[in-house]
Write a structure and sequence with these properties.
Helix 1 runs antiparallel to helix 5. This protein is an alpha+beta fold. The chain is globular. It folds into 2 domains: 132 residues, MM3350-like (Structural Genomics Hypothetical 15.5 Kd Protein In mrcA-pckA Intergenic Region, Chain A, Roll), CATH 3.10.290; 46 residues, no CATH class. The strands form 2 sheets. The chain has an 8-stranded mixed beta sheet with strand order 5-4-3-6-7-1-2-8. A two-stranded antiparallel sheet has the order 9-10. The protein is built from 7 helices and 10 strands. The chain is 28% helix and 23% strand.
Length: 239
């Protein structure tokens, strides 16, 4: 089987957080996004955009006010060439910018798979590269005035900034699908009766959730993309 080997690294953080992985050449950019999420360690909470030589490739949500290609309708082999470099932006708020290099075409089985990498992925919604590096510094000093709030209560003292578990990453790549609502990756068989029942319950529960937006006070529920951040969609986009 022909595979495309890529190296991806997160910009703005030192030492570098990077992964090397292989995918099938027929993947759409939307599926490629899903692989990147698992390989890096993101949780698929936010929107994304590829920039390939100035061409924007992103999901068609009906709201974009610029020219782009629908990531679900464009395959990797249609737009990429060996040695090509391009960009991947995840989370338009924290602005996690990734640089990707299409290293080479390889013969490979059991795709997709990760072959190498270094360092842990930042947690979601931590404030981007600046916020993450600040946490790294604070974690080194238990007497820091913000240690309790940002490390103990928010990040967790057991968070290992240097951890990269190749076996665990590839185990995640064996999962067939993300939760449809964009939540965490779950290691389940999406064709099993148990998964279908869980998914039904998941949707019902999220639709019935009742919150107030932290900014405008409007009632929000699980149908809002950003309910997990405590904001309605409109305020999240503004903020």
């Amino acid at each position: 089987m022909k595979g495309f080997q890529f190296k991806i690294f997160l910009e703005g953080i030192s030492p570098k957080i990077w992964r090397r992985f292989v995918v099938g050449d027929s993947l759409s950019f939307d599926d490629f996004h899903g692989v990147i999420q698992r390989v890096m360690g993101w949780e698929n909470y936010h929107l994304y955009e590829f920039d390939v030589g100035g061409v924007k490739i992103t999901p068609d949500d009906g709201e974009a006010d610029y020219d782009f290609l629908d990531s679900k309708k464009v395959s990797l082999r249609d737009y990429l060439k060996e040695k090509q470099r391009f960009n991947y932006l995840y989370d338009f708020g924290d602005c996690w910018r990734h640089r990707i290099v299409f290293e080479k075409i390889v013969d490979c089985e059991d795709l997709p798979k990760c072959v190498d990498g270094e360092r842990a992925c930042p947690p979601e919604d931590c404030g981007g590269g600046w916020g993450y590096e600040e946490m790294m510094e604070i974690s080194k000093d238990k007497k820091h005035p913000e240690y309790e709030e940002k490390i103990v209560e928010w990040l967790g003292e057991d968070f290992d900034f240097e951890k990269f578990d190749l076996e665990e990453v590839n185990k995640g790549l064996g999962v067939s699908s993300f939760w449809e609502e964009g939540g965490r990756v779950e290691s389940v068989d999406v064709n099993s009766p148990e998964f279908k029942e869980s998914m039904k319950y998941f949707k019902q529960e999220n639709e019935s959730l009742d919150f107030e937006c932290a900014l405008c006070g409007k009632k929000i529920g699980g149908h809002n993309k950003y309910w997990h951040k405590g904001m309605c969609d409109d305020c999240d986009l503004v903020g």
